[in-house]
């Protein structure tokens, strides 16, 4: 059955290190994918790798029709939401955008497992993300 955001819970999609190291409490973890995006190492980072002159690379998503990106979706309860989102805002600070997408667990189904999964992404402007 499709899970809606109205369930008073937050869903967050992890496609990089969030896959294996969430760092926050969650009630459910689903393996699956989002559509229309691909994983790329375009995001510049100086907070835990690289320098201001030579930023390191971290993964982000690029909108790309026909592509899918596999990862995990975490269900965060209303009780844990504030602490989890505060943690994620610090951890994911290099990503300047959030998008809300459908998340699928079954590649043969057109019906998403969850609608409105929050995804942290970097601006598509590669000059801003050097």
From TrEMBL:
GO (cellular component) term, any one: cytoplasm
This enzyme's EC code(s): 4.3.2.7
Group of enzyme by EC: lyase
Family annotation (SUPFAM superfamilies): Gamma-glutamyl cyclotransferase-like
CDD domains: GGCT_like
Keyword Lyase: yes
GO MF entries: glutathione specific gamma-glutamylcyclotransferase activity
Gene Ontology terms describing biological process: glutathione catabolic process
InterPro entries: ChaC, GGCT-like, GGCT-like_sf
Keyword set includes Secreted: no
Domain of life: Eukaryota
Keyword annotations from UniProtKB, A to Z: Lyase
Pfam family, one: ChaC
PANTHER family in UniProt: CATION TRANSPORT PROTEIN CHAC-RELATED, GLUTATHIONE-SPECIFIC GAMMA-GLUTAMYLCYCLOTRANSFERASE 2
Name assigned to this protein: glutathione-specific gamma-glutamylcyclotransferase
């Amino acid at each position: 059955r499709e899970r809606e955001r109205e369930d008073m819970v937050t869903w967050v999609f992890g496609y990089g290190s969030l896959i294996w190291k969430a760092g926050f409490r969650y009630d459910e973890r689903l393996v699956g994918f989002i559509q229309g995006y691909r994983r790329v190492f375009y995001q510049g980072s100086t907070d835990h790798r690289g320098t201001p002159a030579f930023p390191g690379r971290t993964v982000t998503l690029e909108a790309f029709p026909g592509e899918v990106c596999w990862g995990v979706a975490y269900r965060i309860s209303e009780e844990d939401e504030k602490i989890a989102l505060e943690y994620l805002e610090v951890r994911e600070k290099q990503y300047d955008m959030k998008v809300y997408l459908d998340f699928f667990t079954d590649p043969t189904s057109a019906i998403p497992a969850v609608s409105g999964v929050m995804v942290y992404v970097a601006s598509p402007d590669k000059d801003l993300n050097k």
